[in-house]
């Protein structure tokens, strides 16, 4: 239990990661899959940002009286990753809309059935 | 002056050209613009390759920030080779695309197609030139997102599902990759690939590093469809527009393999020799499984594009097999097969796309007797098919020869046997196409016509390449040999 | 430009012309004939140099380090090239008669692929190293596939599958492995008198390598790699005659002889004792194929099994591993070519004139088709090895070599197979001339004249070569290193 608390940030990261991946694989609804995908990607933000933050540290601006800084690079990287994540989600939703127009459903098994693949 | 900025131009030109392309609302204009940019990219890549071959690796500092703080573009022999492959395929496919796409897409979508194609090109080139592990992720996502769109534009509604599946699996792959890079960054504090390679040996706690490597390997394997992570690929290539399928089959998976080579050999090679982590065993096992099982699956496909896509999965097995051999001969085989399979499969997708132009979907049944209607197209398929099988005198033979030598060098005769057995499976599935096209009678009312020259000539350029690079290997095997040498860390 | 390259380009140029002349069948057929004559004319110019001990060669073209495309002419290649190119002239004449007489469809592609196949055959004959040999070997398989499947019915498609899978499969798996092995062991693939792997490989390895070559070269039809040959009989008879009795199958045994002489080395093989099994495999094929031939009622299939048996004669001769036996092997390549093409010509003539394909239908046919059946008899005698036919000469050398080497298994095989040959050929001749003809509702005479001329020519050649075997003998002796 102690290790879970000591590694709180990492624990949450792992839970989100596994949870997201599980939702992607287990759900047949295209929207729910995308939600899972987003959760999965969010876990990565934590993976980077968590260790980058130093307790008591400030933003890395040189100023009198502040000696401990958080690492800015992971934050910047994750800004990019968030943008990528949003773009992916937007595209995924757009494709889902088109799928709904073409098939009249967003359930994976029904779509496969309509194409005769199942 | 300009020469010095070639690495940046290689990426920036198509990247900036893309939004401009979206503004050109006339399809022909957008096409002309995209073609022009593709050819310019090829010229830049060729200049870079000659420069690398004469003066050694190029290091370009973006914004003049010194690495490892700034982003570095680093181009050595193998990346220059990949640049030429990617831009070369792009330059050949573009002239083909105009007529082919006009038949497959509504006119108002065409400029968007070219926009997405240019973005995809920029992303792939960026993945190749950059020397920064996180920058790779950004370019990977640029290439991936645009390729999801390209696939979703496919003429049948199945293309949408294929694109969606690719989006899910591709994103998982990219996220795995970035998780792996995260672990490396946490342990070393750097994202520069060359810097990573230097710092990795200094890290005492090895476990997070190995976990990071595992994430990167799995993530990239998803991207290049290593068996059994290939489920997105057959649908994606089968239902994408023909020009997009040819372009992606020849380039997208190859660039992901290139990245894997980078990480396996440049980053980890020295501090973490592959055999220490049992990677050759796993890799050869999966490669062999892919070579055999995907080929067998290809035999039972009736949709020709799906057949070719599954054949790609098998051929990727050849490439990863050479990586697993972890020797200079094997790696040369891998690198040269990246190129040879690129042109071979590109040619096949272009030619089959030409048939699709008149018959819609291309099934074995719809090919009956088509050789009389489209003799040049089918002749091209025969020659490219021979290269796929690995008949001597074709490009495919060269790569297989290296892989067989690599297997024999290790004393693994069974592996040499598996390599040729898989070629025999290729004989069977290509044989099905040829039997139908040449020996079966044409159904009454078949109206297939030879595709227009603007499509036939690009396809035949690649077909001739299949033979040319089987007889003259100065450009391919020679450079691949040098690249393999450099990757294994022996000074050239 | 080297005469060898010119000789290979002539049929290719002919193929292009033939393809262009699709609309003018008469001119097209003329071009075929002229091309064949021209190719023979070029090939024959190379003879004096080879006879005087010269080895014409082209500059090597490097494909990969150690893998070179190179043509080098030596006596065996010269002999093979002469056989293939001279018989192509006769065969072209015959084809014209056959294709017209049977009103075959798609004659233009037929002639085109035929010409390309001849070019590839010359490539095999001229191959200066193992890689070049392998390359043209594969090309020959691929360009003869359209000829085998010429009829495009279900039987032809099925036969085409067997043909491709056995020949391409065998060569891609076993032959290629053997080539790669030689490359790994010696670092080069050149043909060197005495053998390149001599002193490099152990006896066991040498034996294994030999096995890879013998079974990998499926065109030699050593059992159990023989199934493609009877299957290929669905092709039009000119194809069976020139390609599946001469060019393709001879390319197989030619490659084996060449590899044994120049890659493995005769002395090397006999001193290591690694090739003894070959005599038993080849001997077994000779006898088994003859027995199967006895039971075939389809004339072309009977000839095909006879071919399988006769090809293994060549391999059997090589397996004795003495210079004299190599002379016998080389001569048998020539002797069987002339004899068997005559037999196939006759079979095709019977099919064209009388539409008969079965042995049991041939009673009394000798009276309607005397020229054809006399030629058939000459061919059969050559197969059995009776003077005055060329078949006697080659058999004589093989028997002498086996005697000199006290190789009694080989002798026993030859005696037994001679009896079997007689048993499956003589009844046909007997029935044709001595049995009364059944009542035939469609009376017929000889086949069209080009076919009769062609088969008379090859039958005459079979006898002439018995009387004057100077040229083939000189080339064969050079090959074996005999004065």
Tell me what you see in this structure.
The complex is a heterotrimer of chains A (118), B (492) and C (483). Chain A is mainly alpha-helical and 118 residues long. Chain A has helices at 2-6, 8-26, 30-52, 72-103, 108-115. Chain A has one domain: Helix Hairpins (Orthogonal Bundle), CATH 1.10.287.3510. The longest helix of chain A has 32 residues, at 72-103. Chain B has a two-stranded antiparallel sheet with strand order 1-2. The radius of gyration of chain B is 21 Å and the shape is globular. With 492 residues, chain B is mostly helical. The model of chain B has no long low-confidence stretch (mean pLDDT 88). Chain B has helices at residues 6-23, 27-55, 77-104, 110-129, 133-152, 158-188, 193-199, 207-224, 232-239, 242-267, 279-299, 304-325, 328-359, 370-373, 375-389, 395-409, 413-439, 453-471, 477-487; strands at residues 58-61, 72-75. Chain B starts with 5 loop residues before the first helix and ends in a 5-residue tail after the last helix. In chain B, helix 4 packs antiparallel against helix 5 (133-152), helix 6 crosses helix 9 (232-239) and helix 16 runs parallel beside helix 18. Chain C has a domain at 275-483. Helices cover 75% and strands 1% of the residues of chain C. Chain C has 20 helices and 2 strands. Chain C has a two-stranded antiparallel ribbon with strand order 1-2. In chain C, helix 1 packs antiparallel against helix 2. Chains in contact: A-B, B-C. At the B-C interface, helix 16 and helix 17 of B face strand 1, helix 6 and helix 7 of C.
Briefly characterize the structure.
Chain A is mainly alpha-helical and 118 residues long. Helices cover 74% and strands 0% of the residues of chain A.
Greatest interface by residues involved: B-C, 32 and 30 residues
Q: Give the helix tally of chain B.
A: 19
**What is the total tally of β strands of chain C?**
2
| Average residue-wise pLDDT of chain C | 86
CA radius of gyration of chain C: 21 Å
Largest sheet of chain B: 2 strands, antiparallel
Return the structural class of chain B.
Answer: mainly alpha
The spatial strand order of the largest sheet of chain B comes to 1-2
Regions with little confidence, pLDDT below 50 for 5+ residues of chain C? none
Distance between the termini of chain C: 31 Å
Report the helical percentage of chain B. over 70%
């Amino acid at each position: 239990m102690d290790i879970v608390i000591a590694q709180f940030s990492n624990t949450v990261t792992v839970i989100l990661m596994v949870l997201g991946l599980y939702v992607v694989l287990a759900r047949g609804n295209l929207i729910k899959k995308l939600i899972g995908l987003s959760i999965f990607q969010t876990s990565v933000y934590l993976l980077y940002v968590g260790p980058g933050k130093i307790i008591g540290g400030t933003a890395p601006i040189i100023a009198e009286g502040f000696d401990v800084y958080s690492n800015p690079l992971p934050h910047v990287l994750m800004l990019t990753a968030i943008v990528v994540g949003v773009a992916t989600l937007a595209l995924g939703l757009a494709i889902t809309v088109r799928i709904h127009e073409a098939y009249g459903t967003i359930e994976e098994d029904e779509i496969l059935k309509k194409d005769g693949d199942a | 002056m300009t020469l010095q900025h070639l690495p940046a131009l290689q990426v920036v030109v198509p990247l900036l050209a893309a939004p401009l392309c979206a503004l050109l609302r006339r399809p022909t204009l957008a096409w002309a613009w995209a073609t022009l940019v593709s050819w310019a990219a090829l010229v830049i890549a060729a200049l870079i390759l000659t420069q690398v071959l004469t003066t050694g690796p190029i290091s370009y500092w973006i914004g003049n920030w010194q690495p490892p703080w700034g982003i570095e573009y680093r181009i050595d022999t193998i990346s220059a080779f990949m640049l030429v492959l990617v831009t070369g395929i792009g330059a050949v496919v573009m002239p083909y695309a105009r007529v082919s796409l006009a038949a497959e897409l509504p006119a108002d979508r065409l400029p968007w197609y070219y926009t997405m194609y240019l973005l995809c090109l920029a992303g792939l080139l960026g993945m190749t030139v950059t020397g920064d592990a996180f920058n790779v992720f950004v370019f990977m996502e640029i290439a991936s997102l645009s390729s999801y769109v390209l696939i979703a534009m496919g003429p049948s509604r199945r293309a949408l599902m294929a694109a969606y599946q690719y989006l899910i699996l591709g994103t998982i792959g990219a996220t795995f990759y970035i998780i792996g890079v995260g672990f490396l960054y946490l342990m070393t504090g750097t994202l520069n690939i060359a810097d990573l390679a230097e710092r990795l040996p200094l890290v005492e706690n090895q476990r997070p590093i190995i976990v990071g490597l595992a994430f990167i390997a799995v993530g990239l394997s998803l991207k290049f469809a290593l068996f059994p992570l290939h489920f997105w690929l057959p649908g994606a290539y089968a239902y994408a527009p023909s020009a997009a399928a040819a372009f992606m089959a020849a380039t997208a998976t190859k660039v992901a393999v290139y990245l894997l080579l980078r990480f396996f050999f440049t980053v980890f090679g020295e501090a973490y020799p592959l055999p220490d982590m049992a990677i050759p065993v796993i890799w050869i096992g999966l490669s062999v499984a892919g070579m055999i099982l995907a080929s067998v699956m290809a035999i039972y496909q009736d949709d020709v594009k799906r057949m070719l896509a599954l054949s790609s999965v098998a051929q990727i097995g050849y490439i990863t097999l050479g990586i697993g051999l972890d020797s200079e001969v094997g790696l040369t085989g891998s690198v040269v097969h990246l190129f040879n399979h690129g042109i071979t499969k590109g040619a096949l997708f272009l030619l089959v796309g030409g048939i699709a132009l008149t018959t819609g979907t291309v099934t074995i049944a719809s090919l009956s007797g088509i050789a009389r209607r489209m003799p040049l197209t089918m002749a091209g398929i025969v020659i490219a098919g021979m290269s796929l099988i690995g008949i001597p005198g074709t490009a495919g033979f060269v790569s297989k020869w290296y892989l067989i030598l690599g297997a024999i060098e290790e004393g693994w005769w069974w592996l040499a046997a598996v390599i040729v057995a898989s070629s025999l499976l290729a004989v069977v599935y290509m044989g099905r196409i040829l039997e139908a096209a040449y020996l079966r009678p044409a159904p009454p009312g078949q109206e297939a016509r030879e595709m227009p020259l603007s499509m036939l000539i690009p396809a035949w350029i690649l077909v001739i390449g299949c033979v040319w690079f089987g007889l003259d290997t100065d450009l391919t095997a020679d450079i691949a040999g040098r690249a393999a040498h450099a990757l294994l860390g022996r000074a050239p | 430009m080297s005469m060898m390259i010119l000789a290979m380009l002539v049929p290719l140029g002919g193929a292009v012309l033939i393809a262009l002349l699709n609309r003018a069948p008469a001119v097209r057929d003329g071009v075929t004939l002229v091309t064949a004559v021209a190719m023979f004319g070029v090939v024959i110019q190379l003879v004096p140099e080879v006879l005087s001990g010269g080895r014409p060669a082209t500059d090597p073209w490097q494909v990969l380090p150690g893998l070179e495309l190179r043509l080098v002419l030596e006596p065996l290649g010269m002999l093979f090239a002469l056989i293939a190119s001279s018989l192509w002239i006769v065969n072209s004449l015959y084809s014209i008669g056959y294709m017209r007489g049977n009103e075959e469809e798609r004659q233009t592609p037929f002639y085109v692929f035929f010409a390309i196949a001849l070019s590839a055959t010359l490539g095999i004959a001229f191959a200066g190293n193992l890689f070049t040999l392998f390359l043209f070997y594969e090309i020959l398989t691929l360009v003869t596939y359209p000829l085998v499947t010429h009829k495009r019915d279900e039987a032809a498609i099925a036969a085409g599958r067997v043909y491709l899978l056995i020949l391409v499969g065998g060569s891609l798996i076993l032959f290629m492995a053997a080539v790669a092995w030689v490359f790994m062991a010696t670092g080069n693939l050149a043909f060197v008198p005495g053998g390149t792997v001599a002193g490099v490989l152990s006896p066991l390895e040498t034996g294994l390598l030999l096995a890879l070559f013998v079974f990998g070269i499926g065109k030699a039809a050593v059992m159990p790699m023989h199934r493609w040959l009877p299957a290929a009989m669905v092709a039009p008879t000119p194809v069976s005659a020139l390609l599946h009795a001469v060019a393709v199958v001879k390319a197989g045994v030619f490659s084996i002889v060449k590899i044994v002489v120049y890659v493995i080395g005769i002395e090397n093989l006999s001193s290591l004792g690694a090739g003894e099994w070959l005599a038993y495999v080849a001997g077994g094929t000779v006898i088994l194929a003859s027995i199967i031939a006895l039971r075939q009622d389809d004339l072309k299939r009977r000839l095909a099994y006879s071919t399988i048996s006769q090809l293994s004669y060549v391999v059997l001769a090589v397996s004795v591993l003495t210079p004299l036996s190599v002379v016998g092997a080389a001569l048998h390549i020539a002797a069987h070519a002339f004899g068997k093409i005559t037999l196939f010509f006759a079979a095709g003539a019977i099919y064209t004139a009388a539409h008969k394909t079965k042995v049991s239908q041939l009673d009394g046919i000798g009276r309607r088709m005397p020229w054809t059946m006399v030629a058939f008899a000459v061919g059969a005698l050559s197969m059995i090895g009776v003077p005055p036919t060329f078949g006697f000469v080659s058999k004589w050398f093989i028997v002498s070599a086996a005697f000199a080497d006290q190789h009694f298994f080989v002798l026993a095989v030859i005696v037994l197979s001679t009896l079997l040959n007689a048993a499956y050929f003589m009844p046909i001749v007997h029935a044709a001339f001595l049995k009364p003809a059944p009542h035939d509702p469609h009376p017929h005479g000889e086949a069209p004249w080009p076919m009769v001329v062609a088969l008379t020519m090859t039958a005459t050649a079979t006898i002439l070569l018995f009387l004057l075997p100077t040229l083939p003998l000189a080339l064969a002796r050079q090959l074996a290193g005999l004065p």
